């Protein structure tokens, strides 16, 4: 993450990158003072600097949009199979489609599709 944005002027870096970097600096300062830091969850950022679809904090993992805003319906326990397999593609796709004004019939049908609890597409055996 740091290497990708290394050459960029700090004003061009994303909010996700700034939050991640700020937390890393705090952790580094504590470690230099021989203070062990536990339980800090760094934001996960995509290559373009936006928030990665899956974020984890404390006991939960959840789906977020590119701005880091959580989708309310997609949250699972952190140490679960659902969290291990979580990719939030369905939640993100539904969000994108909801923003399109002129929808095709397929898009309209997809708006009613129920994503899995972890924001993924349902597996075939559930459909």
Automatic annotation (TrEMBL):
<dbReference type="InterPro" id="IPR051950">
    <property type="entry name" value="Dev_reg/Prot_inhib"/>
</dbReference>
<dbReference type="GO" id="GO:0007160">
    <property type="term" value="P:cell-matrix adhesion"/>
</dbReference>
<dbReference type="GO" id="GO:0005604">
    <property type="term" value="C:basement membrane"/>
</dbReference>
<feature type="domain" description="Thyroglobulin type-1">
    <location>
        <begin position="13"/>
        <end position="88"/>
    </location>
</feature>
<protein>
    <submittedName>
        <fullName>Thyroglobulin type-1 domain-containing protein</fullName>
    </submittedName>
</protein>
<dbReference type="InterPro" id="IPR036857">
    <property type="entry name" value="Thyroglobulin_1_sf"/>
</dbReference>
<keyword id="KW-1015">Disulfide bond</keyword>
<dbReference type="InterPro" id="IPR000716">
    <property type="entry name" value="Thyroglobulin_1"/>
</dbReference>
<keyword id="KW-0964">Secreted</keyword>
<dbReference type="Pfam" id="PF00086">
    <property type="entry name" value="Thyroglobulin_1"/>
</dbReference>
<dbReference type="GO" id="GO:0005615">
    <property type="term" value="C:extracellular space"/>
</dbReference>
<keyword id="KW-0677">Repeat</keyword>
